[in-house]
Design a protein that fits this description.
The protein is of the alpha/beta class. Helix 3 crosses helix 9. A six-stranded parallel sheet has the order 8-7-6-9-10-11, sandwiched between helices. It is built from nine helices and eleven strands. It folds into two domains: 74 residues, no CATH class; 147 residues, Rossmann fold.
Amino acid sequence: MKPEILAALQKARADKRPVALVTNLKSGAQKLIYETEAEGPLCLDVDMLAGAADMLKRDESGTIQTGAGPIFVHAFNPPPRVIVVGAVHIAEPLVRIASLAGYGVTLVDPRRAFAASQKFEDYTVSNDWPDEAMAKLKPDVRTAIVTLTHDPKIDDPALEAALKSTAFYIGALGSRKTHAARLERLKARGFTDNEISRIRGPVGLAIGALSPAEIAVSIVAEITKIRRGE
């Protein structure tokens, strides 16, 4: 491996940036594939690049047969993330279940008294306002974002930041009436119907969930369904 490829790979991993190392098994030439760009001397056509990028997105490593010989794609992905906005009663089972499902969880709530509960002491907590938290967290294609507070002052800035990101899942707790009002506010802020259609609301799969734990299960189930492309 060339020093510049190794250095770039190490930096991407340190930055928790998704990257795939693509190696031609005949020549040894290599290329790094990121979400939106690529670098390295290995020549890949459009189809090869798309194939490698798709494997990175699916978090898969393996060999692809090409006209230039077999290439091996090694995906290096940071853990998928769930950003939960609002330290409300549903948040506690949600962060636990999401963590058990393999997600890195961050809880965002500027109301320190809410987020200071011992229930959240094992998780990363941000007391920044959601727009400030999102700017630091930089949600990407491996990030799910869920808002829970029903408070427009907290949920709306989080949703605006989410819609401007590449997050693969955006969900918002609330009734259909609450969600309709939420969408109207976002439209007034300049978001299009196509953009706001990314928001899952009411959040979670329709499994008849009633208790906080059941609602948390339905949310993680929906996140999993979308992540796995079902």
